[in-house]
Amino acid sequence: GSVSNTPGVFNGGVQETTKMSRIAYNSLGQMAGYTENDNQYYNDGTKDVLNVYTTTARAGINSGGIIYDTSTGQMKSYTDTTYSTATGGTADANGIVSGGVKDTRTMSITGYDLQGRMSGYLEGDWQYKITGTTVNLDVFSTTARSDIAYNDLGQILSYTDIIYSTATGSVSNTPGVFNGGVQETRTMSGIAYNSLGQMTDYIENNNQYYNNGTKDVLNLSTTTTRSNINYYDNSGRTLGQVTGYTDTTYSTATGGTADANG
């Protein structure tokens, strides 16, 4: 939403301030961990419209440093621990957020393409909040993303996610490792963007499947084509927020038939 009359000089729109601290390095000079404090702020001239603080501490899995491939130097795994004022946290005078939902995300990158872009990963996510002795939120989920394809601008065109969650019956003894419950397979394709890099269209094929060991209990396929995604422009509110879109949906729950591709 910023307006630029001169390259590199901007006015208005969202101001994002990022402070990096506690940067550590391994013996090869590669970054092993850091803390990032981020603030997104927008005032429309009369009042604050957006003011979100987020604190993310990045480190390695199992308390080590960020892991890199010894041959290519490409990142292989890390853990992010995040607090945000958007999920009940409180920012101090330095913009450091604590409290609210603790979001712990482990990333294990499974591959890169020839241009050095991520082609797949395994993400384990734990969202947790406790007030006194009452647990308000305690959800584990894992997402295996594969077959990520890009256009010439480096924008994602398509991918496939396989998702398990304790919210849908999966059992987790180790963060990111699941057994049983509903398997959700989601394929995104036909992703298009406008000149600002905002998504305008996509097709989502979603299948939710569960077998209790003796029979299929759930096997639901849904296809959603989303189009005409519109955003606030520079003559209105300039936060890149969605103002409208059109969904066309077919589902096996409402008499539809799924082909071999779901």
Structure notes:
The chain contains no helices and 19 strands. The protein is mainly β and 262 residues long. The strands form four sheets. Strands 3, 4, 5, 6, 7, 10, 11, 12, 13, 16, 17, 18 and 19 form a 13-stranded antiparallel beta sheet that branches. A two-stranded antiparallel sheet has the order 1-2. The protein is globular and about 55 Å long. It starts with a strand and ends in an 11-residue tail after the last strand. The model has no long low-confidence stretch (mean pLDDT 90).
Structural class estimated from helices and strands: mainly beta
The count of DSSP E runs of length 2 or more, i.e. the number of strands, is 19
Q: Over all CA atoms, what is the radius of gyration?
A: 21 Å
Shape: globular
Helix content: under 10%
Helix run count: 0
For the residues shown, what is the average pLDDT? 90
Poorly predicted regions are none
Strand content: over 45%
**Major sheet: size, sense and barrel closure?**
13 strands, antiparallel
The N- and C-terminal alpha carbons lie at a distance of 38 Å
SSE pattern: EEEEEEEEEEEEEEEEEEE
